[in-house]
Structure formats: structure tokens, C-alpha cells
């Protein structure tokens, strides 16, 4: 901390002024002592010293004005400040105009000074060539320090990165001019080294061109367009040119050292200027990367949240805020997803841990933040303004929903804490001190919960896989089996085993980010939440090596991936049947409209039974797992990768018993000749129904009875009966699902890796995850 403050002080306005004054004074001394020419022909150092005195007076005035006249932020001015400020307002505008004129004059001085160096005669000016070159180097550094004076007043109108790139580009240009001038003069006197000096002249010219390019980039880029694709290509071209010029400068620096050793006439200023130029190029590259940085500067923090401790009233509060934001929480109801998240967090499955995360605004927490922190937090950069997106399948007829977030106050009225007036009335009526204390305790709890409801951006459930084997996801033709044998989770060196975090449910495979507040910038909010999650992962005890967030393509979240610092990966498309046009219709009418030929003839002829079970037993859960295992064996026989988890009977039992009083989850069986031939778990998520943990008994003539097709038909029949709008059948078996009337809905995933080096490997494996 002390070192940081020292460095900040050393680059402050007072030291910038001192650097300029010192080099200008050195320039004056060297010219008047060493040069034999007429001193009146070179007045620039004297003019610069005069400008230094003017700038010093202005710095002192600004310091006194800020200390004795300006009031502190958030405070009323004192009578003395008000009295003095009344008179200073009259001279403030002329002073600011004068400051601008001085700024432009210093800028013109720097340019003319460098131009004069370029055209100065090279004979009979100094006693030796070394003295002349030393004078040129000092003059260049004096001009650089004068440029430093220009940055003193830039802070009010231009951002630090813009100023730094402009300053670095100006220095780069001056260095290029110095390199060109020094080596042009040496070409005439060192003909045996003319090729080397020509190379250095070309390098200086390229450095000068690169400097002008950097100044152009500084003028073109703004907060609004810095993430624009055209600006991105411009910066890429700038970086490419910078890399080429820097490589040429490094080559020149390498060649200059042996030349210095064998030829004493080679000036030492060449390697010095080359070295400084390389350092300035690195600064320019860092600035260009900052311009394209995609991490949102937000006021969000992620913390773990325990749903099991909530009362029924509090659960309904969270359900209501999710439902109010249903435009972005498409196809689900708040109560159903709260139930499923709570179930997952309490269910037992080896190797899997689930947690609910609450994304909250830092400004709402009971911590101390400076006004600057809060101002920065509220200012989500203009570069992340919301973008229009294509209509999702879940949006009603592609139109905006009439319900707006203005209803929040009305809906959440019952969760507001009691007013002080009501508390006083209750205190008068109650004579029991113990009862009064309980009322005050209740008041504190209500106030805390109401703040949680109104200050939460999103609730997210993360499914943590303790051992995610990358080798299992790599096909055998790419060496997957060999890698699994030597570096998989069962090998001696499990190098390809990672801790994996899925921001979603594994069954059903669905995103588990549910927004709890409105925003006019959904893309910015989505990017900010993903970035906040990556920060939470670094600070928490979990530290997932990889995190994946699945979402629908063309969604706000998909647009925000490129701004969040995460990678975009491909995921298998899901298949959704839209049942909204078939409300109050029968299954036969639906099939007729879809021109689908029913597949249950053999099943009906065998007197097959369709059994939905809501009050499940452990034996039925074991049957679900047994049939699901048969599908897993079939996948292995076809050289397909395994799923993330294998369900256990206890897990299936927990799914249907934990927080399932409204029967959001149930079992569905197909039974023929007294034997189960197919099964699945039905998940009800509000407007959406889905089936997962499917099972098929391939040894009981399931293919003969077309059990899988019959299972899908019965799920659609159940959805029509319950007026469900959508049935999400998930990925895999695309032809069968399209035939039955499903739309193919593309999915994408946002991928985060703690170690950037393994990003391409994980992306390759993630593209091949079978869900």
C-alpha cells in the first residue's frame, strides 16, 4: 500500500512539472555551454522554462481553489467559501480559457521543437558528434516531459486509458523522430555502416507512423463504440502493426550491440532510444487491451443462500419476484423453480453438490463505500447498452408482455416491514414486554427479508461436479480411451479430472439463473452477473476449474457472453413442443394438426398400461434407476460418452418427496404384461413440462411396442390435460421429436475456466458433452 501511494505521488502533477522543468533547464545549459552557434536562434528551452513558471502558478491556484473555495462533495459551502466563490466565479471562465490556450501552446511547442531537431544542421554546431547526440537525446526527453504537462489537466475531460495511450503515442512519435534524425546524420559520416543506419531510419519512420496510428485510435474510440465490431478490427490492425514495429525495433536493438563493440563512432543513444521505444510499445499494447476489455464494472456480489430456512410466506415472496420478471424467466413459474432448487440442494447424490447463489447489489449491503465506488457501480458502461434480440419461443406472440415492473410495489406490499406508527399503536395495546420484544424481532426479520427481495438481481443454482473427467468426453478416434486410461479419474495421474460447475439443473438440463429485478439493460445485467460469478468462484471455497451456463440462442444471456469474459461453446439443441394453439384440445386433434401417425397401436393391443405415480416408494425408484441404467449401457455400446451423473434410488426418492407438496415432480411408467418397459420423471416448471431420467428395457421387447414414442405421446397428453404451454423434451433423438411436433431450439453455453491455458481444451470437450 505504501509503495502504491509513493508511485502515485511520483506520477502526480507536481512531479510532472518538476521533470519538465529539470529537462528544459538541462537543455538550456547544454546548448549554451556546448553549442558554438548563435544562441538567439534556439529560444525554445527558454520559452519552455517560462511556460513552466506559468504552469506552476496555475497549479498553485488550482490547489488553493480546491482547498479553500470549493466545498467538499455532499457538504454545504462555508460562509467564507461562499463569499470568496462569489468573486472567483467572475474570473473562473477566463481562467479556464487561458488554461486551454496554455495547453495548446505547450502542444505546439513540443511539435515545433521536434521538427527543429529534425532540420538542424549537423556541422560546426558542437565540439563533437557525441555532444550533439547527447543534446538531441536531452531535447527529446524535454519534449516528452512537456507532453507530460499536457496530461495534468486531461483528467477532467478524458479517461485515463485514452490519456495514457495518447501520451504514449506522442512519446513513441518523438522517439521515432529522434532515431531518424540521429541516424540520418550518421549515414553521411559512416558510409561503411550506411546499411545499418538505413535500417534504423526505416525503424524510426515506422515508429512514427505507428504513433500517428495510436493517436488516431485514441480519437476514434469512445465509451459507446469501444466494443463495436468495426472498432475491434481497427484495434486488431493496430495491435498487429504494433507487433511488427516492435519486432523490428527488437531486431535493431540486437544488431546495435555488436556494432557498438567494433565501431566506437556508433552513438550510445541508439540502443537507449530502441529500449525506451520497446517499453512504450508495451504500454500502448496494454492500453489497446484495456479498450477491448469485456469485464463489466458492476456493483454486484454473489453470496450463498439457504432456501430451506425460509417460511412459506418468504418462499412465496421469492416466487412472486421471479414471476414478475417472467419476460426473462421464460416458461417457468417462481414457485416451481424455488421448489426444484430447494429439492436439489437437499437431495443426496454422490459426487454432486448443489448450492443456491444470490446475486445482490453491493450498495445495498451494510458496508462502507465511497461516493466514487457507488458512482462507478451505478454506471454500467455505455458499451454494454441493451441490444435488441430475436423473439424467443416463450414470448407471447412475439409481443411485449403488458405486465410491467411497476406492479412490484403492489405485489410486495405484504412483505414490507411495519411502519413506526403501527408499532407505537401495537406497543400501547400490548402490556406484555415479552410480546413486545417478539414484535420488534419480527419487525427486524421483515425488514431484512424485504431488503433481500428488493435488492436481489438473481437467484442462481449451481450444480458442482467434484470429478469431471474430460477424457470421457473426448471421442475414441481422438484418443479418448487412451487418455481416460492414463489421465482419467481412475488412473494413477488424473490430470484431466476437473471440478466442474453447471449453472443449471442436470435433470432436466435447464438453465437455473432466475432474475428477480427489472432492468433496461438486460445484456449488461447478464454479462455483469456472469462476471460476478467468476469473481465469486475465485474467492469461495469451491473454486470450480470450469463453469458452464447453458442458455437459449438469441437470448439476452447469449448476447452478453462476449461481454462477460466467458467463452461461447456449442451445446446440443433442445426440442420443444409448443402447445399454446392446442389449449382444450385432445391428443388426437394435436396429432392430426401435426400430421403425425400415432405409434401406440402395438402397445394398446398388448393391453399396455400408462401409470403416473405421485406418492412414490423406494422400489419404484429402484425401477427408474434400473431402466435408466439400460440406456446408459446402450450408449456405452455405441461408443457414446457417459452422462455427468447416474441417478440413485435415494436421489429419485428425494426428487419426489423433498419440497414436492404440489406434485411438481412425479414418475411415469409404461407397463406391458406385468413388467415395466419404459419410465421417466415428469418435471412441472410452470408453463413448461419436461421428462428426464428416461429408462427403456431393451430386453422386454420395448422396441416392438415403440415404448419411447409412446412415452413422448403420453407426456404430451398429460401436458394438454393440465393446460401446459410447452413440453421440453431435451436434446438427443432429434428426428423422433421433430416428427412428433417439436421445434428445434438451439442452445449455447458460456464457459469459464480459472486457468486460461486449458480454455481451448475444455472448450473442445464441452462442445461434445452429452446431456
UniProtKB/TrEMBL annotation:
It comes from the Eukaryota. Residues 425-459 form a coiled coil. Residues 643-737 form the BioF2-like acetyltransferase domain. Keywords: Coiled coil, Membrane, Transmembrane, Transmembrane helix. The chain crosses the membrane at residues 12-34, 46-64, 96-119, 134-153, 165-187, 199-222, 234-260, 272-291. InterPro entries: Acyl_CoA_acyltransferase, BioF2-like_GNAT_dom. This is BioF2-like acetyltransferase domain-containing protein.
Amino acid at each position: 500500500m505504501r509503495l502504491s501511494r509513493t508511485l502515485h505521488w511520483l506520477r502526480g502533477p507536481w512531479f510532472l512539472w518538476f521533470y519538465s522543468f529539470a529537462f528544459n533547464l538541462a537543455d538550456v545549459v547544454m546548448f549554451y555551454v556546448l553549442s558554438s552557434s548563435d544562441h538567439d536562434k534556439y529560444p525554445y528551452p527558454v520559452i519552455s522554462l517560462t511556460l513552466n513558471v506559468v504552469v506552476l502558478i496555475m497549479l498553485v491556484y488550482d490547489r488553493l481553489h480546491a482547498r479553500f473555495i470549493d466545498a467538499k462533495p455532499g457538504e454545504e459551502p462555508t460562509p467564507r467559501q461562499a463569499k470568496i466563490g462569489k468573486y472567483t466565479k467572475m474570473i473562473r471562465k477566463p481562467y479556464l480559457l487561458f488554461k486551454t490556450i496554455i495547453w495548446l501552446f505547450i502542444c505546439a511547442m513540443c511539435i515545433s521543437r521536434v521538427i527543429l531537431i529534425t532540420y538542424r544542421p549537423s556541422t560546426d554546431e558542437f565540439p563533437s558528434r557525441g555532444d550533439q547526440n547527447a543534446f538531441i537525446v536531452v531535447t527529446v526527453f524535454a519534449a516528452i516531459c512537456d507532453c507530460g504537462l499536457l496530461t495534468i489537466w486531461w483528467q477532467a475531460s478524458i479517461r485515463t486509458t485514452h490519456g495514457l495511450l495518447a501520451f504514449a503515442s506522442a512519446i513513441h512519435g518523438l522517439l521515432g523522430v529522434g532515431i531518424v534524425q540521429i541516424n540520418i546524420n550518421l549515414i553521411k559520416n559512416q558510409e561503411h555502416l550506411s546499411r545499418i543506419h538505413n535500417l534504423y531510419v526505416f525503424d524510426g519512420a515506422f515508429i512514427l507512423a505507428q504513433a500517428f496510428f495510436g493517436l488516431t485510435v485514441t480519437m476514434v474510440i469512445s465509451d459507446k463504440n469501444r466494443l463495436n465490431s468495426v472498432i475491434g478490427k481497427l484495434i486488431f490492425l493496430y495491435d498487429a502493426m504494433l507487433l511488427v514495429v516492435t519486432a523490428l525495433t527488437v531486431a535493431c536493438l540486437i544488431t546495435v550491440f555488436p556494432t557498438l563493440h567494433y565501431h566506437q563512432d556508433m552513438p550510445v543513444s541508439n540502443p537507449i532510444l530502441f529500449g525506451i521505444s520497446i517499453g512504450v510499445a508495451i504500454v500502448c499494447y496494454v492500453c489497446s487491451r484495456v479498450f477491448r476489455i469485456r469485464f463489466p464494472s458492476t456493483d454486484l456480489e454473489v453470496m450463498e443462500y439457504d432456501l430451506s430456512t425460509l417460511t412459506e410466506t418468504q418462499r412465496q415472496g421469492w416466487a412472486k419476484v421471479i414471476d414478475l420478471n417472467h419476460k426473462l424467466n421464460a416458461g417457468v413459474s417462481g414457485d416451481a423453480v424455488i421448489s426444484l432448487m430447494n429439492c436439489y440442494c437437499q437431495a443426496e447424490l454422490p459426487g454432486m453438490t448443489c448450492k443456491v447463489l444470490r446475486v445482490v447489489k453491493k450498495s445495498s449491503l451494510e458496508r462502507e463505500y465511497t461516493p466514487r465506488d457507488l458512482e462507478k457501480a451505478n454506471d454500467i458502461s455505455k458499451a454494454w447498452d441493451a441490444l435488441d434480440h430475436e423473439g424467443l419461443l416463450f414470448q407471447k406472440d412475439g409481443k411485449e408482455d403488458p405486465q410491467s415492473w411497476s406492479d412490484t410495489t403492489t405485489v410486495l406490499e405484504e412483505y414490507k416491514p411495519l411502519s413506526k406508527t403501527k408499532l407505537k399503536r401495537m406497543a400501547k395495546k400490548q402490556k406484555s414486554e415479552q410480546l413486545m420484544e417478539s414484535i420488534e424481532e419480527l419487525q427486524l426479520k421483515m425488514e431484512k427479508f424485504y431488503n433481500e427481495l428488493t435488492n436481489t438481481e438473481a437467484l442462481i443454482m449451481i450444480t458442482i461436479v467434484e470429478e469431471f473427467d474430460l477424457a470421457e468426453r473426448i471421442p475414441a478416434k481422438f484418443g479418448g480411451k487412451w487418455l481416460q486410461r492414463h489421465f482419467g479419474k481412475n488412473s494413477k495421474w488424473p490430470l484431466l479430472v476437473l471440478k466442474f460447475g453447471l449453472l443449471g439443473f442436470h435433470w432436466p438440463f435447464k438453465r437455473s439463473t432466475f432474475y428477480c429485478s427489472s432492468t433496461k439493460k438486460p445484456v449488461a445485467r447478464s454479462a455483469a452477473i456472469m462476471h460476478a460469478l467468476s469473481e465469486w468462484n475465485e474467492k469461495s471455497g469451491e473454486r470450480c476449474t470450469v463453469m458452464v451456463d447453458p442458455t437459449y440462442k438469441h437470448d439476452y444471456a447469449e448476447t452478453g457472453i462476449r461481454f462477460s469474459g466467458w467463452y461461447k461453446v456449442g451445446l446440443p439443441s433442445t426440442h420443444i413442443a409448443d402447445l399454446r394453439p392446442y389449449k382444450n384440445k385432445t391428443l388426437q386433434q394435436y396429432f392430426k394438426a401435426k400430421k403425425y401417425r400415432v405409434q401406440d397401436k402395438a402397445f394398446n393391443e398388448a393391453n399396455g398400461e400408462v401409470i403416473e405415480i405421485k406418492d412414490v416408494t423406494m422400489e419404484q425408484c429402484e425401477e427408474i434407476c434400473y431402466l435408466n441404467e439400460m440406456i446408459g449401457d446402450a450408449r456405452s455400446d455405441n461408443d457414446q460418452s457417459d452422462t455427468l451423473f447416474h441417478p440413485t434410488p435415494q436421489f429419485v426418492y428425494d426428487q419426489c418427496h423433498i419440497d414436492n407438496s404440489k406434485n411438481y415432480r412425479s414418475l411415469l411408467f409404461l407397463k406391458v404384461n406385468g413388467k415395466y418397459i419404459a419410465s421417466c420423471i415428469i418435471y412441472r416448471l410452470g408453463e413448461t413440462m419436461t421428462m428426464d431420467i428416461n429408462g427403456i428395457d431393451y430386453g422386454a421387447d420395448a422396441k416392438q411396442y415403440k415404448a419411447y414414442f409412446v412415452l413422448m405421446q403420453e407426456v404430451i397428453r398429460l401436458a394438454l390435460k393440465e393446460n401446459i404451454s410447452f413440453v421440453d423434451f431435451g436434446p438427443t433423438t432429434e428426428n423422433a421429436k421433430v416428427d412428433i411436433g417439436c421445434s428445434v431450439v438451439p442452445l449455447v453455453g458460456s464457459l469459464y475456466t480459472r486457468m486460461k491455458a486449458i480454455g481451448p481444451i475444455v472448450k473442445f470437450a464441452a462442445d461434445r458433452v452429452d446431456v
